[in-house]
Amino acid sequence: MIVEPAQAGELAAVMNVLDGADLAIEVGHVEQAIGAEQVLLARSRAGTVLAALVGCAREDSTRIEAIAVRPGRRGQGIGTALIRAAGERWGTLTAEFDPPLAPFYRQAGFEIEGTDRCHGRRWP
């Protein structure tokens, strides 16, 4: 597996993965994030997009706006690899997510607060 920034012509591939996970994120927002080099993709060795992470640079961190792994590839460490790569590139990461996702974010190194809607932070 290879993790690398999404390129300008890959908007459809990114949206395909995000839509497959039922994530509500605007195409225009993702397009801007690609242009700002704030979208990472995990690819198979053959080049197939397996997962995507959309970030948003903040003053002191990068917020994970969306992360999705193709359903057939979940549970293989791909999402965790994306988070590690994002942390290496962007430093401190933050995220807001539903409680059922807390175990995923915790094992990816986030410190988590909240119960109705969770907030997490991962330091480099």
From TrEMBL:
Annotated N-acetyltransferase domain residues: 1-124
UniProt keyword Transferase present: yes
Pfam hit, one: Acetyltransf_7
Entry keywords, A to Z: Transferase
Family matches, as CDD domains: NAT_SF (cd04301)
Stored SUPFAM superfamilies: Acyl-CoA N-acyltransferases (Nat) (SSF55729)
InterPro entries associated with the record: Acyl_CoA_acyltransferase, GNAT_dom
GO MF term list: acyltransferase activity, transferring groups other than amino-acyl groups
Keyword check for NADP: no
Protein name: Acetyltransferase
Organism: Halodesulfurarchaeum formicicum
